[in-house]
Design a protein that fits this description.
The complex is a heterodimer of chains A (270) and B (853).
Chain A: E1 9-11, E2 14-15, E3 17-26, E4 29-32, E5 37-38, E6 42-45, E7 50-58, H1 65-75, E8 84-88, E9 91-105, E10 111-118, E11 123-124, H2 135-139, E12 142-151, E13 154-156, E14 163-175, E15 185-199, H3 212-216, E16 220-225, H4 228-231, E17 236-240, E18 245-252, E19 260-269
Chain B: E1 10-12, E2 15-16, E3 18-32, E4 46-60, H1 70-73, E5 77-81, E6 84-98, E7 105-112, E8 125-126, E9 138-142, E10 154-166, E11 182-196, E12 208-217, E13 227-241, E14 249-256, E15 264-269, E16 278-284, E17 289-294, E18 297-299, E19 303-305, E20 309-313, E21 323-327, E22 330-334, E23 345-350, E24 364-370, E25 377-380, E26 383-384, E27 387-391, E28 394-398, E29 406-412, E30 417-425, E31 430-435, E32 438-439, E33 444-450, E34 455-460, E35 463-465, E36 468-472, E37 475-479, E38 487-493, E39 498-506, E40 509-513, E41 517-518, E42 524-529, E43 544-549, E44 552-560, E45 563-566, E46 576-581, E47 588-589, E48 594-597, E49 602-607, E50 625-633, E51 640-645, E52 654-656, E53 659-662, E54 668-674, E55 682-689, E56 692-701, E57 713-716, E58 746-747, E59 751-752, E60 755-774, E61 786-791, E62 797-800, E63 814-832, E64 842-843, E65 846-852
Parallel strand pairs in B: 32-39, 41-48
Antiparallel strand pairs in B: 1-2, 1-5, 3-4, 4-7, 5-6, 6-7, 6-10, 9-12, 10-11, 11-14, 12-13, 13-14, 15-16, 16-20, 17-18, 17-21, 19-20, 21-22, 23-24, 24-28, 25-26, 25-29, 27-28, 29-30, 31-33, 33-37, 34-35, 34-38, 36-37, 38-39, 40-42, 42-45, 43-44, 43-46, 44-45, 46-47, 46-48, 49-50, 50-54, 51-52, ...
The chains are: A mainly beta (270), B mainly beta (853).
C-alpha cells in the first residue's frame, strides 16, 4: 500500500509540492466482429498508445520546473523537443507539456496545475519514496501577498489585479510511420497562452483586438516566494504580458459584492 | 423479422473471412419508356437492359488474402452471403487505406455474373479468435531497389478492373437474369499512394520506371510474411501538401501499368548456372520481363520467349544467390539455384621477386590470369595486400611489407574459389645474426633472421655450404663448409636473392706440438683442428702451408685436418711462437706453443766463475778438482763436455767433464771435475749436443783446484731477512768480507742449530778443504761451535769435522778446515752445534763466504 505521503512527484528529478496527481495511460483498441459469427474475433489496435499525467501543486518560485519548461516551449516554438521525465510514485515516462496554469487569488497561496502527455509506454511500479521534508520548502511557496506587478521596471502599486490566472496549452503532433507502434518524433504544432485577470476597471473590447498590456498598464507579473515579505527579495517566477490580445471583458455585478471586471487575453504561438 | 449481422454468414470460395460489412446487390439497368402526351412521366412499362450484381465487402486480414490473388489471376470467385450464393464472381476493385496502428481492413467489390441462387438464411456460428494484421506490424520497402522510401506515414493500395460481359442476342437463358456468354477483364489499374517525408520532387514527363514498393505484413503469431502487397511500375504522381497545424506530406503514387499474374519460375537451365553463359528460365507469366537478379548482380536485358521462357546471360561476376525475375506483373523467386564458378587461375606475375621493404622496395606487382571475378582477397604469404582488379584477367596489387617467399593467392570468398600462383613470389632473406661468429669446418652455426625459405646455399666467405637445416623461416642451422670461410655470411635463396652479414672468422686451433724445439731435419708434428686448406696460406708445392716459427716461416705439409708435419732444413731465427699463416696472409693463427730452434752449440769463451785463481797460467795440479764456465750459445742442449788434449803431447787424449750443467738460456755451461793425473794441462774444450758440437781450441788450462762452493743448490735453515743481502747464496758470491750492513752475508734467523749447505748435482770427488770467511759485522759472534759436514747422495754422513771449540765468537776472519783425506760427497754443510755431547745451540749463523776445494 502506498500512502500519499510517500508519493514522489517530480519532473526531470525536481520534486513538486503536489496536492494531487493523476497518471492515466490508455490505448485505442477496437473490437473486431465478423458477419455470420457470434462473438468477438479479437481486439486490435486502432490508434496510438497514449497517456497523461496531471497534478496540482503549490508554486515554489525557487523550485518550479514547469514554468521553465513552459518558457522553453514558448520561446522555441520552431524547434524540436525532447521529452521530459515525469514521475509519480515510481511510475515514470517521457512526457510533453500539454497544459500549465498558475492562479493567484487574493489572500491565497499561488497554485498551479500542469498536464503532460505522452505517446510512449510508461514504466515503473508504485514505490514509496522516503519522506524527506525539506524545511526550506515551507517558506518557499508563493502567495498572493508576494505577487507583484510591473510596467517596465516600475512596480505598480495602484489599480492592481485582484485575481489572475495564466494558462498555457501546447498541441503536439506525434509522427508515426508504418511498422512502428511508437512515434518517430513528436512535433509541436501550436501553443496558446491565456491570461484571465480580474480588476475593477472596465475597458472596451475592439473588433481588431488590442494588446492587454496597454489596457491594464501592466506588462510583467512577478511572483516571489513568501520570504519576500521579510527580505524584500528572493526567488520569483514571472509572466510577461506582451502582445496578448484582449478577447473578452466581463463585468460581473452581484448582490453584496463589488463589481468585478474580468479581462481575458490570449497569445498564440506557432 | 430482422436478423443480426452475426447471423449472416459470408464465405468466399468456401473460406470464412472476417467481414465487417458486406452488401450483395442486384441492380436492374432499367430503360424507361415514355409516351407522347405523358409529359415526361415514367411509364409503368419498362425495358430491361440487364441486371448488375455485386458483392461489396469490408474485411480484416488474418494472413494471406486469397481475394487479393484475383488481382492477377482474374479467375471466378464463388461466394455465399447469408445463403445467397454465386459462382461467377470477378474482382472489380480491391483497396485499403492504412494508417499506422490501425488494422488492415480491405474493401473489395466482386462483380457477379451468374444468377445469384439460394435464399437468405442465418447461422449461429461461434467466432474463433484470430490475430488481425495491423499496419504497425508492417514494413515498407522499395521493391526494385531503384527508389527507396525511407518512411511512410500512410499508404493506400487501390485496384480496379473494368469487366466487360459479352452477351449474345437471344440468349435469354433465364427469365430473371441475362447471363453473359463470356466475361472479359479489360483495363486494370493498380496503384499505391504513399505518404512519406521524402520531399524529392523528381517526376518528369518520362516518368520514373522500374519503381516498386512492397508492403510486408508480419505478425508474431503467423508464418511470415503473412501477406505482401506489391506494386511495380511507374511513378506517376507526386504531390507535397501542407496545411496549418499539420505535417507537410509528400504523396507518391506508383502505378502498375498492367496488373496481371505475377511470374512463376518452375525451372532454371542450365543447372548449375555458369557465369557469363546463357540461361533459360522456365515458368509461367514470364512475358514482359524487366530484369533478373542473380544474387546481387542483375541481368538487365532478359528476353522473353512467349510467356514460358526467359533467356539471358548470367552476369559474369555473379555469386551464389537467389534468382529474382521481375516482370511488369511482379516478382518470382527461385530460391536455391546452383552455380558453377570457374576456377581462378594465376598465369603469371611480374616482377617475380624483389625487395618488399624500404624506399627501394617494390610497391606493386601485376598479376595476370583468368576469372578474377569477385575477388576479395589477394594474399602474399597469407598477408592481405591492397589490390585493384582492373579486369577479370589483371590485378595490380601492393606488396605487403614483411612477407616471406610464398605463392600468391587470389581469393573469391563469395565464390569459394581461390587461385595460387604457379611459382612463389620471392623476396630477400635477411640475416639478423649468427652465432657463433667463429668456428671451423663442420661446426654448426645458428642463423636467425627472416624469410629463410627456399634457401639454396649459404656462403661463408668464399666457401659454400649446402649442409643446412631450416628450422623455421626465421632460424636455421648450417654447417661451416671447408674452404675459405672467412668473410661475410651470405644466404641465397633459389631466386638468387641474398643477404649478407659480417663477419665469420674461421677457427684454426693448434692443440699440440710434438717438440718444444728442434734442430735441422728434426720431425715436427703440429696437431690441431681445422687445418683447412682454405684458411691457410699454401707454399705452392707439395700441399705445404706456411707456419711461422719465431720469426721465420716454414712450409709444413698438411697431412690431415688435424696434423701438419715438417722439419727445418736450414738454420734460422726460429725461436718464438708457432703461428699458422692464414689464407692470403690476412692474419696468423696464434697458438700457445713456442718453439726453440736447437742450433749447434757455440763457445765464445771459457772463464772461471768468481775465482780469479783459476787461470790458465797457473800450474795445474793433477788429481785436483777444478771448475770452469763455458760461455756460448745453445749450451743447455749440451749432452757432454769434453776436454781433449791438444798440442804435441797427447793429442788424442781427452777427459770427460764429470759434472756440468747449463743455465736455462743456454749461454753458459758450468763444469766441474778434477784433473786426472798424467794428462796435459792444456785442453781444448768440446761441447756436444744432438744438434752439433763446438770446440774451443787451446783456451783451457787446468791449473788449480777450484772453489766449487757456488756450484750447486745453496740453502740455509732460514733467512734472517727477506732481502737478498742475507740469502744463503751470498756466501758464494766471491766477496770474502762484509756484513749484513754492507756487502751482505748469509744469515739465518736466531734458531736452534742453524745450518748452511751446498748440494751438488752429483757427487764431487776429492773434496779436501773448506774455507770460511766470517762476517766483519756484529753477526760474527754467531759462528762458533760448528761442524763441517760432508754428506753422500742422500746426505748421509761421509765425514764431519770436530766442533769448533771457540765460544762467543769466531776468532779469525778466515778459517780453513783441511780434511785429513779427500772425501767424495754431494752435500757440504756448516752446522752450528753444541759441545759433545752437544747441547742445542740457539743462535744465528752468518758467513761472508764459503769456499770448497
Amino acid at each position: 500500500m502506498l500512502h500519499y505521503k510517500n508519493v514522489k512527484v517530480g519532473i526531470n528529478g525536481t520534486g513538486l509540492l503536489a496536492e494531487s496527481a493523476q497518471v492515466d495511460v490508455s490505448n485505442n483498441l477496437i473490437p473486431i466482429f465478423s458477419l455470420g459469427k457470434k462473438g468477438l474475433i479479437t481486439m486490435t489496435p486502432n490508434g496510438e498508445l497514449g497517456g497523461t499525467v496531471t497534478f496540482n501543486y503549490l508554486v515554489e518560485p525557487g523550485n518550479e520546473p514547469v514554468n521553465g519548461i513552459c518558457k522553453y516551449v514558448r520561446e522555441n516554438a520552431q524547434s524540436s523537443y525532447d521529452a521530459y521525465v515525469v514521475e509519480v510514485g515510481g511510475i515514470s515516462g517521457s512526457y510533453f507539456l500539454e497544459s500549465y496554469s498558475v492562479r493567484a487569488a487574493a489572500n491565497d497561496a499561488v497554485t498551479a496545475s500542469a498536464s503532460f502527455v505522452t505517446y510512449y509506454p510508461v514504466s515503473g511500479q508504485l514505490v514509496a519514496a522516503p519522506m524527506n521534508l525539506n524545511p526550506r520548502n515551507n517558506s518557499g511557496i508563493a502567495h498572493a501577498y508576494t505577487t507583484t506587478f510591473f510596467n517596465g521596471n516600475t512596480q505598480i502599486t495602484t489599480g492592481k489585479i485582484a485575481n489572475f490566472d495564466c494558462s498555457f496549452r501546447a498541441n503536439w503532433n506525434p509522427v508515426y510511420t508504418l511498422g512502428r507502434k511508437e512515434p518517430t518524433h513528436v512535433l509541436l504544432t501550436s501553443a496558446e497562452e491565456r491570461y484571465n485577470i480580474e480588476r475593477e476597471f472596465f475597458k472596451n473590447v475592439t473588433i481588431s483586438g488590442e494588446a492587454l498590456s496597454s489596457n491594464i498598464n501592466i506588462d510583467k507579473i512577478k511572483i516571489f516566494e513568501l520570504s519576500y515579505l521579510v527580505n524584500n527579495t528572493g526567488n520569483f517566477i514571472d509572466f510577461n504580458i506582451d502582445n496578448h490580445f484582449l478577447r473578452n471583458v466581463n463585468v460581473d455585478a452581484v448582490l453584496d459584492d463589488i463589481v468585478r471586471v474580468s479581462f481575458s487575453a490570449e497569445k498564440i504561438y506557432n | 423479422m430482422f436478423h443480426l449481422a452475426k447471423n449472416c454468414p459470408v464465405t468466399i470460395n468456401g473460406n470464412e473471412i472476417i467481414v465487417s460489412t458486406a452488401e450483395i446487390k442486384k441492380r436492374m439497368d432499367l430503360q424507361p419508356t415514355y409516351e407522347f402526351a405523358q409529359n415526361s412521366r415514367f411509364n409503368s412499362r419498362y425495358t430491361p437492359n440487364g441486371i448488375e450484381q455485386s458483392l461489396t465487402l469490408t474485411y480484416n486480414l488474418t494472413g494471406a488474402d486469397f481475394i487479393k490473388e484475383y488481382i492477377s489471376s482474374n479467375g471466378f470467385i464463388t461466394g455465399n452471403f447469408g445463403g445467397l450464393t454465386f459462382n461467377s464472381g470477378i474482382l472489380k476493385s480491391y483497396s485499403f487505406n492504412a494508417q499506422p496502428n490501425t488494422p488492415i481492413s480491405v474493401s473489395a467489390e466482386i462483380g457477379i455474373y451468374d444468377n445469384i441462387a439460394g435464399a437468405f438464411s442465418t447461422t449461429a456460428s461461434l467466432a474463433t479468435s484470430k490475430p488481425i494484421l495491423n499496419f504497425s506490424d508492417c514494413s515498407l520497402e522499395s521493391d526494385s531497389g531503384r527508389r527507396y522510401i525511407e518512411t511512410a506515414e500512410s499508404v493506400s493500395y487501390n485496384y480496379t478492373a473494368e469487366v466487360d460481359a459479352f452477351y449474345e442476342i437471344d440468349n435469354n437463358k433465364n427469365q430473371n437474369f441475362v447471363q453473359p456468354t463470356r466475361i472479359v477483364v479489360g483495363k486494370q489499374n493498380l496503384d499505391v499512394s504513399i505518404v512519406c517525408d521524402n520531399y524529392d520532387f523528381n517526376l518528369n514527363i518520362f516518368g520514373l520506371s522500374g519503381v516498386g514498393v512492397r508492403i510486408n505484413c508480419n505478425h508474431p503469431d503467423l508464418a511470415n510474411p503473412a501477406e505482401t502487397f506489391l506494386c511495380s511500375g511507374y511513378l506517376t504522381e507526386e504531390s507535397i501538401n501542407g496545411s496549418n497545424n499539420e505535417l507537410v506530406k509528400k504523396v507518391l503514387t506508383i502505378t502498375s501499368n498492367q496488373p496481371g499474374e505475377p511470374p512463376v519460375i518452375t525451372s532454371i537451365h542450365p543447372s548449375p548456372l555458369v557465369p557469363n553463359a546463357s540461361y533459360t528460365i522456365g515458368g509461367r507469366n514470364l512475358n514482359n520481363p524487366l530484369f533478373v537478379n542473380f544474387g546481387d548482380r542483375t541481368d538487365n536485358f532478359p528476353r522473353a520467349i512467349g510467356s514460358t521462357q526467359v533467356l539471358g546471360t548470367v552476369p559474369r561476376d555473379v555469386v551464389s544467390g537467389v534468382i529474382e525475375l521481375y516482370t511488369i506483373n511482379g516478382r518470382a523467386v527461385y530460391s536455391n539455384p546452383l552455380y558453377s564458378f570457374p576456377d581462378i587461375t594465376i598465369l603469371n606475375f611480374s616482377p617475380p621477386s624483389g625487395l618488399t621493404i624500404g624506399r627501394q622496395g617494390l610497391k606493386e606487382i601485376s598479376i595476370t590470369g583468368r576469372n578474377f571475378d569477385r575477388i576479395d582477397r589477394v594474399l602474399f604469404n597469407y598477408l592481405d595486400a591492397d589490390y585493384v582488379v582492373d579486369n577479370a584477367t589483371y590485378i595490380r596489387a601492393s606488396i605487403p611489407t614483411g612477407i616471406e617467399n610464398d605463392y600468391i593467392r587470389v581469393v573469391s570468398s563469395l565464390r569459394n574459389k581461390s587461385g595460387v600462383s604457379p611459382t612463389k613470389f620471392f623476396t630477400y632473406p635477411r640475416i639478423d645474426s649468427f652465432n657463433p661468429t667463429s668456428g671451423k669446418a663442420g661446426d654448426t652455426i645458428y642463423i636467425t633472421g627472416f624469410n629463410f625459405n627456399d634457401i639454396e646455399y649459404i656462403k661463408f666467405g668464399e666457401a659454400i655450404s649446402t649442409n643446412f637445416t631450416v628450422a623455421t623461416s626465421r632460424a636455421l642451422s648450417v654447417v661451416v663448409p671447408a674452404g675459405p670461410s672467412r668473410g661475410r655470411v651470405n644466404i641465397y635463396n633459389l631466386s638468387g636473392l641474398s643477404h649478407s652479414r659480417p663477419w665469420f672468422t674461421p677457427y684454426l686451433l693448434v692443440t699440440g706440438v710434438n717438440v718444444t724445439g728442434a734442430g735441422i731435419n728434426t720431425p715436427i708434428h703440429i696437431s690441431g683442428v681445422n687445418f683447412d686448406t682454405g684458411i691457410m696460406y699454401p707454399t705452392g708445392s707439395d700441399d705445404r702451408y706456411w707456419v711461422v716459427f719465431g720469426n721465420q716461416e716454414v712450409g709444413m705439409k698438411r697431412v690431415s685436418d688435424i696434423l701438419l708435419t715438417g722439419w727445418l732444413t736450414e738454420t734460422g731465427n726460429y725461436n718464438g711462437k708457432i703461428r699458422v699463416v692464414s689464407e692470403r696472409r690476412i692474419m696468423e693463427y696464434d697458438t700457445p706453443y713456442s718453439f726453440r730452434f736447437f742450433a749447434p752449440p757455440t763457445i765464445t769463451s771459457i772463464t772461471n766463475l768468481a775465482n780469479p785463481r783459476f787461470d790458465y797460467t797457473a800450474i795445474a795440479v793433477s788429481g785436483k778438482t777444478f771448475k770452469a764456465t763455458i760461455n756460448g750459445t745453445n749450451l743447455d742442449l749440451v749432452t757432454g763436455v769434453m776436454l781433449t788434449g791438444s798440442g804435441v803431447n797427447n793429442a788424442d787424449l781427452y777427459v770427460r767433464a764429470p759434472f756440468y750443467y747449463s743455465n736455462t738460456d743456454g749461454t753458459q755451461a758450468f763444469i766441474t771435475g778434477y784433473k786426472p793425473s798424467g794428462i796435459p794441462a792444456y785442453y781444448h774444450t768440446v761441447v756436444r749436443s744432438p744438434y752439433g758440437e763446438a770446440i774451443l781450441t787451446g783456451k783451457v788450462k787446468l791449473t788449480e783446484q777450484a772453489n766449487i762452493g757456488g756450484y750447486g743448490t745453496i740453502t740455509q735453515s732460514s733467512n734472517f731477512f727477506t732481502t737478498e743481502l742475507c740469502r744463503a747464496t751470498v756466501a758464494t758470491n766471491g766477496i770474502t768480507g762484509g756484513s749484513s750492513g754492507d756487502y751482505g752475508i748469509s744469515l739465518t734467523q736466531t734458531e736452534v742449530n742453524p745450518w748452511w749447505q751446498v748440494q751438488f748435482l752429483q757427487d764431487i770427488a776429492e773434496i779436501d778443504r773448506v774455507v770460511i770467511y766470517n762476517s766483519s759485522g756484529p753477526e760474527k759472534t754467531g759462528l762458533s761451535q760448528f761442524v763441517v759436514r760432508v754428506g753422500g747422495g742422500n746426505n748421509e754422513l761421509i765425514y764431519m769435522t770436530g766442533v769448533h771449540s771457540g765460544d762467543g765468537g769466531y776468532p779469525n776472519l778466515r778459517e780453513e778446515y783441511r780434511f785429513p783425506t779427500t772425501v767424495s760427497g754431494r752435500y757440504v754443510r756448516i752446522h752450528l752445534t753444541g759441545a759433545s755431547p752437544a747441547p742445542e745451540v740457539t743462535r744465528w749463523l752468518g758467513m761472508a763466504e764459503v769456499e770448497i776445494y
